[in-house]
Every structure is written in C-alpha cells, then in structure tokens.
Amino acid sequence: MRNSFALLAGLFALIVPQFTLTAAAQPHSVDAEGHQWWQHAVFYELYPRSFADSNNDGIGDLNGIASKLDYLKQLRVDAIWISPCYPSPQVDFGYDVSDYENIDPMYGTLKDFDHLAAEAKQHNIRIIMDYVINHTSDQHTWFLDSRSSRTAAHRDWYIWRDGKGPDQPPNNWLSTFGHSAWKFDPKTGQYYYHFFYVEQPDLNWRNPEVEKAMFDVTRWWYKRGVSGFRLDAVDTLFEDPNLTDNPVRPGTNQFGDPEMDNKYNTKLPELHGVLRDLRKVADESNAVLIGETWTNDIAELNRYYGEHNDELQLPMDFMFTTVNKLSPSDFRAQIAAVESASGWPTYVISNHDIIRSYNRYGDGQHNDAIAKLMAGLYLTLRGTPIMYYGEELGMENNDPKRKEDVKDPIGQLGWPKQKGRDGERTPMQWNGSPNAGFSTTKPWLPVPESYKTHNVASESKDPSSVLYFYIHLLALRHSNRALLDGKYIALNENDPNVLSYLRQYRGESVLVVLNMSTSEQKASFDLKSNGVSGTEATTLLATAGGQAKQASLSAITVEPFGVYIGQVSGR
Ligand code: NOJ
Predict the structure, then answer these.
(1) Does the pTM exceed 0.90?
(2) Tens-place pLDDT, residues 296-313
(3) Computed from CA positions of residues 390, 395, 397, 398, in that sequence, does the dihedral angle turn out positive or negative?
(4) Lowest CB count within 10 Å: 3, 129, 232, 235, which one?
C-alpha cells in the first residue's frame, strides 16, 4: 500500500506543483466573488462498514478511515461524508440510530473519532456526519420510553394514532420499504408511524422538545469539529396531521403494494421552517448542510435552497442520476435545468442507495472509458461534486446472487425484483490480495472478482486506469479557476453524440468535449460569439493516448467515449 501511496504522491508532485495552495487549506476563506469553502470542495461519501477494516473483523471502522487519509488527500478530496457510524442495531446499517452522540463499538469509540478528526484536520480534510433526522431506531431510549405507556414523557416524540378499527391502520400510507407505514403496538394499543423500516419510528417534528433535542445533536458534533451534515430523508420530516389518505394510482410496486403518490406524508411545507433554523445553527460554525432531496423538478429543488438561500447549501440533484443513459441531449437538458436553479448545483452520480455508475452507464465493453467519461462530466460542471468511494477505481456493483446471501432487508422482502442495496456497498478495493486488502477476515459483503484489476495499488501504477484519470482531473479541477468558478455555456446543442460546453471565468475559458458514442467523433467549435478569439485549444487533459498539446477548434478528435479538456483564449 505504502508503495502505491508514494507513487500517487510522486505523480501529484509532477503534474500539479501548485496544488498545495487550495481553498480548503484556508478554512474560513471566501474569495472575491464570495464563494464559500463548500463551493470549491470535492466531497467523498464513504460507507464506514466498507471502507477500511483496521481490526480485521470484516467490518470497516474509524481507525481504518484514519489510516487512509493520505490516499484521500492525494486524491484531492476536501471533505468526507461518513454514513452513520452512531450506535445502532444495524437493521438499516446505521440509519437506525439508537444514540446520536456516540460511536457504535463496531466502528470504534469517541476517542477514535477525535483521533480521526484531528488527523483529518492535519490533512485539510473536513468531516461531514450523516444526520438521520426523520426517525430513530426503535431501540433509542426516547422510543423505548415513548412506547412504554400513553402518558410517558416521550410519548409525543413519535407519531402514535388509533387504528381505524380492529386490525385497521390509521390510513393508507405505505412504508417506502414495503407495506403499511403503521405498526400496531399491543402494549399501549396504538399504531406508530414509520416511513422506513418498522424498526425506524418517525420522530414527531411538531413537538418542540424533539426539535430542541435534535438541534442540540448538531451543536454537539460541531463542537467536536465536524464541518456539516448530510441530512437523511429530509423530504419525509412532516406528515399531514389529519392523516389524509394518499391518492392511489393503478398498479402495484415491487413489494406488491398499490402504487400511490406520497402527497400527504412527504415534502410538506412545514419542513422548511426546520431547515431555516438548522441553517442558522450551521452558520454559527461555518458548516454546510447537504440534503438527501429527491426532487421531481427545479421548483422543488429551489424550495430546498430556501427563498433567501437560507436553507440547504447543497441539496443533492438526484434528477441528474435519473439520466440513466449516455445521452448528450438528456444531460444537456438536466444541466440546463440545474443551471437555472436558485442555488449552487450539487452533482452526484452514485451513492449507497443507487446502483454504481460503473454499471448504470457501462455497456459491458467500454466500462472503464465510460467511467472516465462520467468523471469528465460531473467533475467539470459548475457546482460541488460528491463522489462515492470506489467510483474513482471503476468499482462495480456486486449484487447478491441468492436470496439467502442478501443482507439489506429490502432485498429480502422484495427478492427477486428488488435485490437490495448490498451490491453498491461492497468493500473498498485497496489491492489485489484476498478481500481486496480491505480485511484479512471474510468481509461482511463479498468483493467482486474485478477487484483483481480494479484496486488502488494496481491502478496507481497504470497510466491508463480510471484512478489515474480521476487523479489528473481532480488536480486540474482544484487549480483551474474556470473549472472552479466559471459560468457554464452549452455548445453545439444539436450534436447527438458529443456533449460540449465552455466554463468561462473572466479571461479564462475551458472547453470540455465528451464523446458519448461508440464511434470516433470530430467536433468543431466556433467560439467567437463567446468572446474566444483563438482558433486553437491547449490541451489540459484528454483520454486519448498521445493527444497533441494543441488542438484546432475546427476539428477536435475524440475517441469513442473519450474526454477532451482544453484551455482556449478569451473571456
Ligand atoms: C436514506 C438513506 O440514504 C438510506 O440508506 C436509508 O435506508 C434511508 N434514508 C432511511 O434512513
């Protein structure tokens, strides 16, 4: 491992000597245009169970993460978002929190967290925690008290209602993880509401005591040095107090339940008041709030930025992840839509709930080239990218082959239509040794066979690897003002094969050309109307081997699924 880190470090020194001068190196800096640290940062989501296992029990841990900070720094990651590592019965692998102010023993201790935070600071890497705001575990002391009697101190911290009649839940709302969202609790003879698993009762955000306790959780972590939160499932924070039935649509979903619109239990306007108040607390610590925001259109996305940009700084644009084919016109339309939004764009192509981009876009033949192409896209757009661990290697999904191997409960419930999310959560591939160097013990999920070629150690020695491309691109992104701050200008908008755009910042223009087709393409550009006087581009980064230093704007040749990025002179 050491060798591959040393190799990566050497590579950086060679290609980007200026890379020590970053915005992240000056924690509170705001540039002349007023950009905040989170606008220039590259975020990296890591799933703690699967990143690095320091004690070889088959499950990743905080000390494992700390041991990989050199790698993350060399990759040019500025902030890591750690999926939940709090104490939890692990029904939903950490998204069922039983104590918000501690670390689950399987991941380490608070002392280990403090060590990680101190080390991360040394590396100029910020830590973002996952804030599971909508629900707790049914083992949280709040819920244990809540369910103990109708008059318990915490009774109203959750949503309890009488059924409509014997064996009839209060209304027709469904859990997104299958079947009714109501669970009858015989002890007190009422139903409680859970948008997710039965073991994840929803908090009652209409109760000011809940709000205070949950706000205090964020303050507690800010004091421990975290730089923000990724807000889990914000859409689901509030429910209609009248419990109006949701409208039912024809057909059934993967769990065999009726299709319905979650009109009365998601995206209620009340949630914006909570977000505004959370933002005020975050602002006291120069922190960022990232949202898991499943929006249907830009109007909905804008609501999450807030009318006065006073809610979430980075609501994730999941609409981008629904462009599930290499279609320049579909991407153009989605980018244009996000460009028209009222806040700073946030791009994501994979996460722990979505099939890895390597499989979603890959055609089975050119997957590595396509992985680079996708990097060339979302790391050069105007906005903040959130990477998912292993994306930089071309890690693939490794779905369970048999129902009995499935760990994620939704995979067990919905098999075979729904295989669950195990496939996108497999261990990080560090090297070619057994278990991909993640652990000496059998890991909690198996690595795919492709780990033998797609791992940090071998890819860092291979200039044609996906990792090499990410390293170059991330270095370029950090050092090029046009890529960091430049406006986005769509080019050649009728080209069915090639997605091209300019990023323009004052006197600098960068041209990005992405060939989304299986054949070589020659793209030609007339950029006079964009204030570009020159007729040539100086190559900054290109996927084709031996790409010329200069390329004529009248014919930029890009190989199948290739990427070309060049500097052009002008505004
Ligand atoms: C969204 C998280 O990303 C997902 O993994 C989890 O199962 C649900 N929220 C419930 O917390």
Answers:
(1) yes
(2) 999 999 999 999 999 999
(3) negative
(4) 3
